[in-house]
Amino acid sequence: MTRAFIFPGQGSQAVGMGKALSEASSAARQVFEEVDAALGQNLSRLMFEGPSEELTLTANAQPALMAASLAVLRTLEAERGLDLARDAAFVAGHSLGEYSALAAAGTFTISDAARLLRIRGEAMQRAVAPGIGAMAALLGPDLATARDIAEEAAQGMVCDVANDNGAGQVVLSGHREAVERAIALAQGRGVRRAVLLNVSAPFHCALMAPAAEAMRRALAEVAMKAPVVPVYANVTAGPLTEPDAIRDALVTQVTGTVRWAESVAAMAEAGVDRFHELGAGKVLTGLVKRIEPSASASAVGTPDDVAAYA
Questions:
Q1: CA nearest 277: which of 254, 249, 300?
Q2: Strand, coil or helix: what is 172?
Q3: What does each C-alpha distance from 210 to 167, 215, 217 come to in angstroms?
Q4: pTM for this one?
C-alpha cells in the first residue's frame, strides 16, 4: 500500500473545526496555540466558536484551515505513530492546502506557514476591488472545452481556468463581465450546469498578479527546507523537492491553475493507492474517488477519524 496525504483548500472551513480534536489531544492543542501566537490572534476561538462570516474571511480561513490540518497530522504522529517520511510517498494540497502540505513535510514551520497564509489571504483580497471579479463553476465539460469557453469569453478581459478539479468540474475566474459571458457560452457545449460562485475575489487568475508579487516578497524572507517527501505542486502537477523550485511554484500558484485532477492522476500513476485527507471536511476525498475510482480515499479530521486511521 502506497499512501499520499492531501490537504484541503478554502471552502472547507466550518465553525467548530478542530474543536473536538483540541479537547482530546494535547498535540492538536499545541498546534492551535502555536498558530494563535504566530498571528497574535485567538484564531482557534474563531475556529471553534465563530462567527462563520468572520471565519470565512480569506485572511482568517487560510491559516485556520492549515491549523486544522496540522493539528490532525500532529495527533496522528503522537497517537498512531505516523511518520510522514516513512509512511507517505507524496503530499499535496489544494490551493492554500499546498502550504499545509509543505508545513507537514517540514519545508515551513507551522508558525511561518500561518504568517504566510495571513499575508496571502490579505493580498488576494486586496488585489481586486469588490465587484470587479467573479468565479464560476462549470459542471460537465472536459478541461479543453472549459479553456475554449474561457478564451472565447475573455474578449480582451481576464477569464482563466482557476481549478481543474476533475470529473467534469472546472472553475473559471476573472473579470465578472467575462465570467458571466462564459456562463452564457457554456450552454450547449456539454456543460450540465454553470453557476457563479459566492467568493470574495477572483482567485487563481491573472487579476491576482499583485498578490503574487506580495507572496514573492514574503517567501523570499522565510527559511525553507527540503520536504521530507516530495510535494506535488498545483501548477506543475508534479513532485518538487528543491526549496527554490517550491518557492517559485507558490508564487506562480497565486495566478495559475490548480491542476488537481492531473496531480491526483499522476500520484496514482506513480503507485499511490490510498489517499488520506487531513483537516476540515471531505471535499478532496470526494474528488479523489471520482478522479481515481480504483484508489481508496478517507478523511481524517475528528478524534473518531484518528482512532479509525489505518
A1: 300
A2: strand
A3: 31, 9, 11
A4: 0.97
CA distance 292 to 288: 6
Q: pLDDT below 70 — which residues of the chain?
A: none
Report residue 104 as a C-alpha cell.
507537514
The whole-angstrom separation of Cα 263 and Cα 93 is 10
Q: How far apart are CA 65 and CA 55, in angstroms?
A: 10
Q: Which three cell numbers stand for residue 36?
A: 494563535
Q: Quick one: cell of 200? A: 470574495
Beta bridge partners of 91: 5, 231
The conformational region for residue 237 under phi > 0 = left, psi -120 to 50 = alpha, else beta, is left
Give the per-residue pLDDT at 188: 81
The active-site residue, picked from 95, 100, 173, 263, is: 95
CA-wise closest residue to 263 among 295, 290, 231:
231
119: cell is 499575508
- Separation of alpha carbons 244 and 220, rounded Å: 10
95 catalytic, yes or no? yes
pLDDT score recorded for residue 20 = 98
Query: What is the maximum alpha-carbon separation in the chain?
Result: 55
204 is catalytic: yes
User: What single-letter DSSP state applies at residue 208?
Assistant: G
C-alpha–C-alpha distance, residues 102 and 263, integer Å: 15
Output the pLDDT for position 200.
Answer: 87
H/E stretch holding 159 reads: strand 159-166
Which of 94, 175, 204, 276 is catalytic? The answer is: 204
